[in-house]
Design brief:
Length: 354
């Protein structure tokens, strides 16, 4: 028979663990962004269980690959999240849904351990994270003490319970992120949508008035896009839009934000930049596309764009809608002037294809 004091001690210990689990769950359950989730989760587990090294591995292929960009950018998460091949994870946990403890020959786990910890840690607990029964990552806790996660002596029941709770919370946070992504992005190009443009401009216009700093908007439109669709097909049209969007993102980069406005029309906004600076960006995009046709099947599809901009300092608009209207009118006068004077490469190419 168990000693009564031992039983009481066990009950107390389990209650303490349950409270810690509750505290971790409370902190992560309602988080809406994956980067905050990983940051809070790893810190909270470190604090509650006094674990020196805690990180998360996520599979670098679907279904969570859309999170890579945001998570990799965050310097706060550099040693707290790793993107790893699914195969490397399976090699370690095999087909098990249970936590694996390793305190011998950790080099077999190198791929799932952040490089800064590899020479420091001597034992690690690796718990699978799943969403809808599918493996999406690993939750890892490690110590320089080789006995802490010792497969020969330690039970993994509590670690498994913790991983189940984390998996449920991870499923919530990714669902929330996906909803936000769908609500704010254009599904074809991944650029922010028109509603986001209006929200951003409304905010930035007020700020530019208050701070007396410039705000520039540039419309970009693909020339002869309907003819590309009609001649080479809708799929080719889609690839042209994606190609332009990619360039737009690259050139606008840290200077502002890029949006898909409608059909073949894009907009970029550069807070704090002058009209001339913004038009230089548009010209660079134009020049790149002009000299780098899109490869589509066996064709090199030439792409030319027209653009028109407006800025708060140059044009003194009354509100952000007025600013957009001026830029849109400039785009169309630019397009009409070019249509009359220069038959574009695009039409020559499409005529040959017909
Ligand atoms: N492939 C594809 N086509 C689209 C998409 N959205 C809109 N479109 C088509 O884009 C075309 C836009 O036509 P227009 O505005 O006349 O464009 P355009 O031929 O470039 O004419 P200009 O601007 O005067 O040079 C229409 O035929 C739409 O059906 C899309 O997501 N994918």
């Amino acid at each position: 028979m168990h000693d009564i004091n031992e039983l009481i001690e066990n009950v107390r210990h389990n209650e303490q663990i349950a409270l810690k689990f509750f505290e971790i769950e409370r902190c992560i359950l309602s988080i809406g962004r994956c980067d905050q989730f990983v940051s809070t989760l790893t810190r909270e587990v470190q604090k509650q269980f006094n674990v020196p090294y805690v990180w998360v591995n996520l599979i670098n292929e679907a279904p969570l690959s859309h999170l890579m960009e945001a998570l990799e950018k965050s310097s706060d998460l550099r040693d707290r999240v790793l993107f790893t091949r699914r195969r490397a994870m399976i090699d370690i946990i095999k087909a098990s849904s249970r936590t694996v403890l390793v305190n011998d020959d950790l080099s077999q786990c190198d791929e799932i351990i952040p490089s800064v910890y590899r020479d420091i840690i001597s034992s690690v607990a690796i718990s699978p994270l799943t969403i809808d029964g599918e493996l999406v990552g690993l939750f890892c806790q490690a110590d320089s003490d080789s006995t802490r996660y010792d497969a020969a002596t330690k039970d993994t029941f509590l670690l498994d319970q913790l991983a189940i709770k984390i998996s449920i919370c991870l499923s919530n946070v990714t669902a929330r992120e996906k909803l936000e992504y769908l609500a704010t992005r254009d599904p074809l190009t991944g650029l922010l949508n028109r509603r986001q443009l209006e929200l951003m401009l409304d905010r930035e216009f007020a700020r530019s008035q208050q701070q007396k700093r410039d705000l520039t908007v540039v419309f970009i439109d693909c020339d002869g896009f309907k003819s590309i669709n009609d001649t080479l097909g809708h799929n080719c049209g889609d690839e042209v839009l994606e190609y332009i969007a990619k360039r737009l993102l690259k050139y606008v980069h840290k200077q502002g934000l890029a949006f898909r406005f409608a059909g073949d029309e894009f907009v970029f906004v550069t807070p704090g930049k002058s009209y001339d600076d913004a038009l230089l960006i548009a010209e660079s995009i134009h020049d790149y596309l002009q000299s780098n046709p899109l490869r589509y099947k066996s064709n090199h599809v030439p792409i030319t764009i027209s653009y028109g901009g407006a800025s708060v300092m140059e044009d003194m608009p009354t509100n952000y809608k007025h600013l957009l209207k001026i830029a849109d009118e400039r785009l169309y006068s630019y397009k009409n002037n070019r249509k009359r004077s220069v038959p574009t490469k695009v039409f020559k190419f499409l005529n040959r294809m017909r």
